[in-house]
Batch of 2 targets.
Target 1
Amino acid sequence: MHIALELEIPSDVRYIERVVEIVAKQCAQFSYPQHQTSLNIPVALSEALSNAILRGNGDRTNAYVQVKVDVTQDRLILEVLDEGLGFNFEECLQDPREPDNLEREDGRGLFLMTQLMDRIERFSNQGNVVRMTLKRHD
Amino acid sequence: MSFAIKKQGEIVVVDVEGQLIVGNRQELKQRVLDELEKGERKFLVDFSQTGYIDSSGLGVLVSLSKKIREQGGELRLANLNDDLKTLFELTKLDTLFQISDTRERALETF
């Protein structure tokens, strides 16, 4: 069995919490471990959504962000699509644990996505897509 | 999600209720900076009622800690659950902040 859903939200950070709640609830239905539904999924998805809203769509106030969710007993796939031009994930990724970065206010979002998800892919498909895969870790 | 701020002795205690994320981090920042402006120097953020924190929430804590230190004060943290401890360890922010298991213990350390 798998559950698939698609959500579309206005490009506004106020919608992030609600989307995270919906996705975490779907995974809880499959009895994913608590640390995955309360840490990995909420934080990684929040990061992807805020990147899509603030950086991808940026000043396009009429833009939307789409979220595709596909969850099975064994893995979760999340795709976050914005209307921006995309970015080079590897080039933008930095290590916030480096002494020079530790006291920076920004620069932890992509790093956290890589730490909390098993796989991150970025590609273009009528917009900029970030796909995140999380395997169930009991 | 909201923030409750109260004084315990000379320490400003901030309870983060719900998430600390991109949508509300500015509110936390402004409320703490207002207290700093009024002359407060000792701050404790209590996470016992907190869900999750994203990178911008972590960033605000780092930024506030720096500003408070520049004014000769201190920002300490208490009551991180296992998920939040993991988050601080992943980012090595556990090395930047003084973190206590309980509010009482944190209040004693000032």
Target 2
Amino acid sequence: MVPFDVLRVRQDFPILQETVHGKPLIYFDNGASSQKPQQVIDRINHYYAKEHSNVHRGVHHLSAKATEAYEAARKTVADFVGATHEEIVFTKGTTDAINTIAFSFGETLKPGDEILITGMEHHSNIVPWQMLCERKRCNLKVLPVLENGTLDLSEIDRFLTEKTKLFSFVHVSNTLGTVNPAKELISKAHAMGAKVLLDAAQSIQHMPINVQELDCDFLAFSGHKVFAPTGIGVLYGKKDLMESLPPYQGGGDMIEYVTFEKTTYNTMPLKFEAGTPNISGVIALGEALNYMNSLDLQGAFQHEEALGNYLRSHMREIPKVRFIGEAPETCSTLSFLVGDLHPFDLGTLLDQQGVAVRTGHHCTQPLMQQFNIPGTVRASLAFYNTHEEIDRFITALNRSIQLLS
Amino acid sequence: MSKSINELQDEVIEEFALFDDWMEKYEYIIDLGKDLPLIDEAKKTEDRLIHGCQSRVWVEAEVLDDRMCFTADSEAIITKGIISLLIRVLSNQTPENIVKSELYFIGKIGLQEHLSPTRANGLVGMINRLKSEALKQLAK
């Protein structure tokens, strides 16, 4: 395998060659969505030009071809996370995957049962559980976050009890960049008899994920954050557990036999894939993971880590910069504020200089409330970013601060 | 006779034509933001808040001699600068003229990107609010 070479990898992503306001694009908004390699774009084109038909339906050539490509992608996803193909359900994204479990697993809950989340969850890992708790008269518990952006693990035994039926938490915080000790938390939850859903939306693109090793019961991630298109995501669920749950949505593909009196359901994974799926999205997701597999991923992740450290050390040199989240274990995502400057102002001036960052509450309003801030500026990196881009970002940031002060 | 909305828009366009690059332009907007006549702290209430903005924006509308008077505030200085331009163009105008005005200056001075709803900075929300306040007066 060719050792990771960022300049070569950048050539694979056409959008990285674009200019914004006449300046070369510096894309530091990978936490919101990653860019797509040509290989993935071509795959979508090829699918619609040569292979498209509905899957799992027809006996004709195209349907068989589409089904073959669709199921091959499922195998690729399964291999990528260490699961079996029957344990991989395609969803619209992480949000859809979490909602699927909130409904299906939720159906097994009784009044008084508890769901545990953490104080650093994305709205998509808060609201579905609030809706479930309202529907089933269950209680939502929130494991607190400390000032440095880590979970308050000293409180875990108070929050994780025999009443806890499910612990759903984020692997890597989209706002703070904190990497949570997933394996340890999962084993603690299992010791109390709780199931675990791991939100891997911000970890799947930054580190190797193996569901066997983690032993999580469910895992969710989005395709578009891992170099695949939007509108496609993955729900992993342990097979026996998934078989025991009621289906989420009813419709075509998820059935075995339908009469007006009674319907029997398909087995995993189709039981959870009602209706015509996002076939091109699934195939493109498979291609995105093929692309990742073709890279020296270990080298890519090391490069990312070096970028994260480089960014943090240069940011520390800027007066009045305050990091929101200073966990010892972080990935290459950094939230910050500068003095009392508003994130929107900084984001606008950075954009004028070709730098794409995210500003605002990052869909983690409760976390913003805890830190008593309106939002942050977030730079979130991917393996195709460079040290030189960080230098230019720092220059652009300094210039923005100067203009606003 | 005070200037019409379009005369004021043309004035703003002329001023912005003097700037060579984005930095000068934003420096000017930031200065405008700093000079914006602020809304009373006591009037920063929920009903004066424009939703959908990344920074909170409050707008107060009053009527003086059949003309609308606007004051506003925001947490973000660039947003304040843009509001200040809007207020300059629309304040002291009759409700009728405000409602039927077409705000072409925003595009002409290169702030059209702020009009995109995805910018979430609420420029569209601000314009809608100023116009709906004028519309309320017309309906009275």
